[in-house]
Backbone:
């Protein structure tokens, strides 16, 4: 599994992406070259990265006025 601080950095990237008004679908870990078949990492590690980025994006989204 990824180091928690690595996942925190990935979550920060998600928050920053939301701050730039990027859609949730812009998660870089969903791109072809970041999928487990391309990187060689396990599905569990990849999923943790996807979820960390989404957590950051969602956290920042929750701070915005509706």
Residues:
């Amino acid at each position: 599994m990824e180091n928690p601080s690595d996942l925190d950095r990935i979550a920060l990237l998600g928050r920053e992406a939301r701050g730039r008004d990027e859609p949730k679908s812009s998660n870089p870990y969903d791109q072809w070259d970041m999928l487990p078949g391309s990187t060689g990492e396990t599905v569990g590690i990849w999923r943790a990265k996807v979820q960390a980025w989404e957590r950051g994006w969602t956290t920042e989204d929750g701070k915005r006025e509706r």
In short: The radius of gyration is 12 Å. Residues 27 and 53 are 7 Å apart (CA to CA). Helices lie at 4-19, 36-39, 43-62. The mean pLDDT is 93.
